[in-house]
Design a protein that fits this description.
By secondary structure, this protein is mainly beta. The protein contains one helix and 13 strands; from the N terminus they run ββββββββββαβββ. The strands form two sheets. Strands 1, 4, 5, 6, 7, 8, 9 and 10 form an eight-stranded antiparallel beta sheet that branches. A hairpin with a 2-residue loop joins strand 12 (132-133) and strand 13 (136-137). It is globular, with a radius of gyration of 14 Å.
């Protein structure tokens, strides 16, 4: 991630594009790059490190879905290997998706962290209760 980007430290609600994460104490987000329909960031906490790419106008991720939805009701996709990385995706069934990348197979702690992530898409109203949004502390 770019060194000139701010770290956003929990606790607080981070509203990315499209992931929404209620950061716990000790967790932080370092912003990466953003574009018209998505953006990337690094999410760190007791679970380790995940590089996240969120998309607000996505199609269904490729691959097979797990049987159990996330605690937020999103479809979670089985882990797959992409080059040197391991990736798990979640999708809200419409246009919101997020891809979580790690250099190693994702741990149970990382999967539990992903389970806490909400999603919105471009058709939704802006998320509420955001303490941090795209690098800005909301006051």
């Amino acid at each position: 991630m770019a060194p000139d980007k701010p770290d956003l430290a929990g606790p607080g609600r981070f509203c990315g594009y499209s992931p929404i994460i209620d950061l716990l104490p000790g967790e932080r987000v370092t912003l990466g790059n953003g574009g018209m329909h998505g953006g990337s960031f690094r999410w760190e906490g007791e679970f380790g490190v995940l590089d996240v790419h969120g998309i607000g106008w996505a199609s269904r991720p490729k691959g097979g879905a797990t049987k159990q939805p996330t605690s937020k009701g999103h479809v979670r996709f089985r882990e797959k290997r992409e080059g040197k990385h391991y990736v798990v995706a979640i999708w809200n069934g419409r246009h919101g998706a997020a891809y979580f990348r790690s250099d190693r197979p994702l741990s149970n702690a990382q999967l539990k962290a992903i389970d806490r992530v909400g999603l919105f898409d471009e058709n939704d109203a802006s998320p509420t209760g955001c303490d941090f949004r795209d690098g800005v502390v909301v006051t």
